[in-house]
């Protein structure tokens, strides 16, 4: 994707709500650079591929377009990118080496596709999501729920599975802390990635950024709005092959994440709780009516998810000289570990060929997975 497209997508995140279906269709049809230029200029909203259908309310579209135009006139893209860089935040657009491939599931017609992600942290988002599981649940968790979430997250992280959650109090926080203690974790926020929300997790977010990432569809400095949490939940479900609901009441937002997981054909799992606990009623609903798999341990979760892209056990080292391409990739692998996108940039190759080379090097026993991505075998 060229620079003009990336800059336009970054700018659009400041004025348009994430996951807007009409905007997604228009961007796919016309490209972000043209859409942003028309928006700033105050031109009429561009026609989308579904504009001839009754489902498109042109009056409503025009109203939103005018509101976005009023905001767009005050957006300085250079200042936005500079402020983001100063906060340690980068913008990742679809097609970038760090863009998670699983998010393509949101691109279906009528879907709530993601236009771009603001990422904070040293981890490589794409690499972290390759072997990942979402763990979600109630903010007002019980000691039982917190214990189960922490145990699941820690055991999964020990098996090099990255835990993805929403950064909230309760189950999310327990899962993040335990996963970070044993490996890496991904926090999906409803606010700007530099905004510590909830405030009590500021220290945890700083620690997570050292090995994992915090990701959001909203730019730096923006506080969360109530509707942003529900829109954010689709990302948690889409980034991973499966979602575990540890503890949730009947009105818990975790059930919204579970619904997204089911719509995206991801594996849906739930942990049973005491039949007398209202905080487990949502999990029991998923088990009874939504065909969620019953899980009680990391082994159960891995049995449901299946292979997560791990390298085969017992690697055999090659004795022949490495091909020049593989040797370049091996030389670019940081001793402390790095994601495929980082390695690709360092060796000057594209992401696809770099990942193929990493697979060959792993089979030869020359590199291995680590929380940061790949590292040389000592």
Automatic annotation (TrEMBL):
Signal peptide, first to last residue: none
InterPro entries reported in the protein's UniProt record: DprA, DrpA_SLOG
One Pfam match: DNA_processg_A
Residues annotated as domain Smf/DprA SLOG: 91-305
The family this protein is said to belong to: Belongs to the DprA/Smf family.
PANTHER family: PROTEIN SMF
UniProt name for this protein: DNA-protecting protein DprA
Organism, scientific name: Nocardiopsis changdeensis
């Amino acid at each position: 994707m060229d620079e003009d497209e990336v800059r336009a997508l970054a700018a659009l995140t400041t004025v348009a709500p994430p996951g807007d279906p009409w905007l997604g269709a228009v961007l796919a049809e016309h490209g972000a650079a043209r859409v942003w230029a028309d928006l700033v200029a105050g031109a009429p909203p561009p026609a989308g591929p579904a504009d001839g259908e009754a489902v498109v309310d042109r009056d409503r579209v025009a109203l939103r377009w005018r509101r976005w135009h009023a905001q767009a006139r005050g957006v300085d893209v250079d200042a936005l990118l500079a402020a983001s860089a100063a906060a340690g935040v980068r913008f990742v657009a679809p097609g970038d080496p760090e863009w998670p491939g699983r998010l393509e599931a949101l691109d279906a017609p009528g879907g709530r596709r993601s236009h771009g992600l603001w990422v904070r942290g040293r981890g490589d988002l794409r690499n972290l999501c390759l072997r990942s599981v979402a763990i979600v649940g109630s903010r007002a968790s019980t000691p039982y729920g917190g214990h189960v979430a922490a145990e699941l997250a820690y055991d999964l992280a020990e098996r090099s599975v990255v835990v993805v959650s929403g950064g909230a109090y309760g189950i999310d926080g327990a899962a993040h802390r335990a996963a970070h203690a044993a490996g890496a974790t991904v926090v999906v926020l409803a606010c700007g990635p530099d905004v510590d929300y909830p405030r009590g997790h500021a220290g945890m977010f700083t620690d997570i950024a050292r090995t994992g990432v915090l990701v959001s569809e909203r730019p730096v400095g923006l506080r969360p709005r109530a509707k942003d949490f529900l829109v954010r939940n689709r990302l948690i479900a889409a980034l991973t092959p499966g979602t575990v609901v540890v503890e949730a009441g009947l009105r818990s937002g975790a059930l919204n994440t579970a619904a997204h997981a089911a719509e995206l054909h991801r594996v849906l799992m739930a942990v049973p709780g005491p039949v007398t606990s209202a905080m487990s009623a949502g999990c029991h609903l998923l088990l009874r009516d939504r065909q969620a798999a019953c899980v009680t341990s990391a082994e159960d979760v891995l049995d449901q998810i299946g292979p997560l892209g791990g390298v085969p056990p017992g690697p055999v080292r090659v004795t022949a000289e490495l091909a020049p391409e593989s040797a370049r990739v091996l030389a670019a692998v940081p001793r402390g570990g790095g994601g495929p996108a980082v390695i690709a940039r360092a060796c000057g190759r594209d992401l696809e060929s770099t990942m193929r080379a990493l697979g060959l090097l792993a089979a030869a026993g020359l590199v291995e997975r680590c929380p940061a991505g790949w590292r040389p075998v000592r």
